[in-house]
UniProtKB/TrEMBL annotation:
Similarity comment text for this entry: Belongs to the novel plant SNARE family.
Localization annotation: Membrane
Spans traversing the lipid bilayer: 217-237
Gene encoding the protein: LOC104606396
Name of this protein: Novel plant SNARE 11-like
GO MF annotation terms: SNAP receptor activity; SNARE binding
The organism of origin for this protein: Nelumbo nucifera (Sacred lotus)
Matches recorded under Gene3D superfamilies: 1.20.5.110
């Protein structure tokens, strides 16, 4: 932290924010292990995901600042900053992998078993057995054929539903992919705008300090000019005033010297 402060205050500030997020992620995942309720686990996981997004944005800001100052740094300093950035990326990726692991575990817990049949199936089987015992062979054959036809129609309807579902799923996946790419571009643009605003704010502060310094210099020069003008006015009004030294160019003319032969 101190070494980064000597290189750039902006880098030191971003590094401190990233370190705070990493500590919050570590504590958050430790807390997640102790939570038993799946709903609370989901909410905790969403909060940790949001922190990871913020950390990713800060790492991008860190990378931009490094590229912005790398021309005036020594090669060893640039190498150290790049290694620092890679270390941040590796630590963030470890938390992303941990988040995927917890998300997969939660998904398995919340999966609904779709193969459970309705209660009372055994009663329907006994009733069908009683009806079959009172039928003739031809009736049994006709009933079997009818049931097979109904089963075939049900299978065809299921195939159509599956095909429609696959089509809808493909369209949804394509739309989600397009929206994800659009959101990624928007996030990158927002990150760039945020970084530009920071740089502009820093530049405005520097300009403000320079303007304040220029104003102080102008005020000092103005006071000097007023003093000179006041001395000139006093010398004009009272040229015999001995309290004010003569200003070069405004001193009274020297007495003309008489030549030696004129005196004689």
């Amino acid at each position: 932290m101190d070494s980064l402060s000597s290189i750039s205050e902006e880098l030191a500030e971003i590094d401190g924010q990233i370190s705070d997020i990493f500590r919050a992620l570590s504590n958050g995942f430790q807390k997640l292990e102790k939570i038993k309720d799946t709903n609370r686990q989901s909410r905790q996981l969403e909060e940790l995901t949001e922190k990871m997004r913020e950390c990713k944005r800060l790492i991008k800001d860190f990378d931009r600042e490094v590229k912005d100052i790398e021309r005036r740094n020594r090669p060893d300093i640039n190498r150290m900053l790049n290694e620092k950035k890679q270390s941040m990326i590796r630590e963030l990726n470890s938390y992303v992998a941990l988040k995927k692991q917890y998300a997969s575990t939660l998904g398995n817990k919340q999966r609904v078993d779709l193969f459970d049949g309705p209660a009372g199936g055994e009663g329907f089987g006994q009733e069908n057995a009683l009806l079959a015992s009172s039928m003739t062979n031809q009736q049994l054959i006709d009933t079997g054929n009818q049931m097979m036809d109904e089963t075939d129609r049900a299978i065809e309807r299921s195939k159509q539903v599956v095909e429609q579902t696959i089509g809808v799923g493909a369209e949804t996946a394509a739309a989600l992919k397009a929206q994800t790419e659009q959101m990624s571009r928007i996030v990158n643009e927002l990150d760039s705008i945020h970084f530009s605003i920071k740089k502009a704010s820093k530049l405005v502060k520097e300009i403000g300090r320079q303007v304040a310094t220029d104003r102080c210099i102008m005020a000092f020069l103005f006071l000097i000019v007023l003093g000179v003008i006041a001395i000139i006015i006093v010398k004009i009004v009272d040229p015999k005033n001995k309290d004010i030294r003569d200003i070069p160019g405004l001193a009274p003319p020297a007495l003309s010297r008489k030549l030696l032969w004129n005196t004689n």
